[in-house]
Backbone:
């Protein structure tokens, strides 16, 4: 079992890709929301803090919740000698 698998649970790049996609998508939504608000002459001061809070919350839930549970469950798992891809560990 590799170090990243033991530390982070199932394949780390899969989770990272999803988080980066979420951040990119919300950045695109923020861009269009700022354009819309400026076209309507509305204040845009609350959009960026909302973007930061939403991304921070999603990252905290992902890291604290999913990776924390996977890391806590891994030492007690019956599959300790088997890596996440289904191959037998040496």
Residues:
């Amino acid at each position: 079992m590799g170090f990243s698998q033991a530390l982070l649970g199932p394949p780390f790049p899969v989770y990272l890709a999803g988080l980066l996609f979420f951040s990119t998508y919300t950045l695109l939504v923020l861009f269009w929301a700022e354009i819309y608000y400026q076209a309507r002459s509305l204040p845009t001061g609350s959009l960026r803090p909302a973007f930061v809070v939403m991304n921070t919350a999603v990252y905290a839930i992902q890291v604290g919740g999913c990776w924390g549970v996977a890391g806590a469950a891994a030492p007690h798992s019956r599959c300790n000698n088997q890596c996440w891809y289904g191959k037998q560990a040496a």
Notes: The first helix runs from residue 3 to 8. Residues 3-76 form one domain.
